[in-house]
Structures are given as structure tokens and as C-alpha cells.
Amino acid sequence: MRLRVRLFAGLRERAGANELELELDAPADVAALKRALEQRHPALGSLAHVRVAVDRDYAAEDTLLSERAEIALIPPVSGGSGEDALLESGVFELALEAIDPAECQRRVEHRSCGGCVLFTGLAREQNRGLQVERLEYEAYAAMLAPEMTRIFARARERFGDRDGSQPKLRLRMLVVHRSGVVAIGEPAVVVAVASPHRDAAFQACRFLIDELKATLPVWKRESYADGQSWIGDRP
Description:
By secondary structure, the chain is α+β, with helices and mostly antiparallel strands. It has helices spanning 9-15, 30-40, 83-89, 101-108, 141-159, 198-215; strands at residues 2-6, 19-23, 51-54, 58-59, 71-74, 91-95, 115-122, 126-127, 130-131, 134-139, 172-178, 180-183, 187-195, 218-224, 227-230. It has two domains: 2-74, Beta-grasp domain (Ubiquitin-like (UB roll), Roll); 83-230, Aldehyde Oxidoreductase, domain 3 (Alpha-Beta Complex), CATH 3.90.1170. It has six helices and 15 strands. Strands 2-1-5-3-4 form a five-stranded mixed beta sheet, covered by helices on one side.
């Protein structure tokens, strides 16, 4: 069967292509796909730490593949009217322009919530002993919303109000992540959480930033005076 595999960030640059095609005997699973790619495209390097998304969802190594599937390699990642109901489920936005953290906080604040926690991740000028001139973020846009939906659901389950004397109250959650070039000192990601109780707001905010950094398919490239590097990449 013929498979088409999308590439991102450092993998795309090493392969010199946005997409690869290869023939595999059916049935073939994710593990077989990775072995074949390592053998036929050695420039990719080891794929041991690379996850595979099938139809915009992370797939286990034994997941069987089909020609109709949308397949992507996911390298290690380094995130109005009627909005009230949406915020109670969790809202994720990919921003092409500068983020206003204060506006994010205002959006989640509500008279039912006694605590509001705001986290802002800034582009810093030094990392790993190197002077960073700018950051650039690349995202697998089609997979962002489904993955953040799962992260928001886990946050609601863990940190929603557990007071048995009243119905479970929902958190109000907003995550905004930059795409494209981000100047030093500018916000790269903002997480805002409001809750009836401050402890839940603190915990949920920490959970959201940690989870999106671990699993959201957004990659960061640092540019220096003498080169650049994809953070988290393992050639």
C-alpha cells in the first residue's frame, strides 16, 4: 500500500520535503512505518522519540495503517458573544500577531469565580548558554484543536469543583499560542484560568501549560547570530 507522511519542523528540514511517500506491504503498523522511514530516509535520523499521528490523533506503535489515513510524524515538542459557554469547555487560539495577556485575563474573569490565574510564557534572550535573537513557531494546525480539547477535558476532570454539596462547577480556561516569528520579550503563550476557588485555578493553569508543552504539535526554532536550532529536536 502507498502511504503519504507529513513532516514538520526539524524532520521537514532534514528530509528536504513537507511530505514523503513510501510503499509498505499490508498490513503495516506505526512501528513498521517508522522502521521503513529510518531505512529509506536516513537523513531523518532515529525516530525512536518521534510520535506518529493518524487522522489527527496520536497513535500507538501497533496501530494499523491504511492508504486513506492522514499520517504525520510529530517530533518532540518544546500550546465574544456566546464565549462564556465555550470558556467553560476551554478555548484554544493560535495567534499570528502579538498576544495581550491582560485581555486574556479579562476574557476568563467572571463574577462566579473567586480566583483567576494567568501564566505568560515570554521569548527569552538566552537559552542553553546561547544568545537568542528571535523565536519562530510552527504548528500542525489541523491537530491543535483536537489535542487541546483532550487536554481541557483532563483539566476539567482533575480540577473541577469536587464539593459534594453542590453541582460540579466548571473552570473557565483560555490558551493562546503564537505562530510564526516572535521577538525577544514578547509573549509566546498565555494560559488564563478562572475558578470559584483559587487552588483549582493555580493547579489547572500549571497542568495546562505542562500538558501542551509535552503533547501539543507546536515546534520552536531559535535563531542565533551564527545559526539556528529546533528545540527538542533529536537528529
